[in-house]
Amino acid sequence: MKQIEVKIMGQAYLLGAPEGGESRLQAAVQRVDAAMCKIRDGGKIKARDRIAVLAALNMAYELTDDRAAETEGAASAAPSGEPAAAQPPALSVAEQATLGALLTRLDKALGDDGRLL
């Protein structure tokens, strides 16, 4: 595993990236940084932990929206007479594990910086 240094909201973090996964991790970091900076720049929320949680929720909501759109597209392509999916599919075990690992990393990275004000 390769260690890379990244910055999120101006703070440096040292992250482990799987071999060949550095560019994907950099893209994820850029997306998280942009989401968190947008919330911070809105001016209402100052605590990093709250900004991180809101950014994570916004990104998860976008993911859910994307999945719902995929489900609707698949349902409209299904032969008539078959019921359409009522809800977007649940996260797979691998996706749940990835999200859990990301949350653990975020907790470690925030450390005491994530204290409530």
Helix proportion range: 55-70%
Strand residues, percent: 5-15%
Which sequence of SSEs, written as H and E, runs from N to C? Answer: EEHHH
User: Strand sequence of the main sheet, in spatial order?
Assistant: 1-2
Number of domains: 1
- Helix tally equals 3
Q: Find the structural class using helix and strand composition.
A: mainly alpha
- Main beta-sheet annotation: 2 strands, antiparallel
The poorly predicted ranges are none
Q: Look at the structure and give the mean pLDDT.
A: 79
Distance between the termini: 36 Å
Number of strands: 2
Question: Gyration radius, to the nearest Å?
Answer: 18 Å
Q: What is the molecular shape?
A: globular
Main location: cytoplasm
Subcellular location: Cytoplasm
InterPro entries: Cell_div_ZapA-like (IPR007838), Cell_div_ZapA-like_sf (IPR036192), Cell_div_ZapA_N (IPR042233)
Keywords: Cell cycle, Cell division, Cytoplasm, Septation
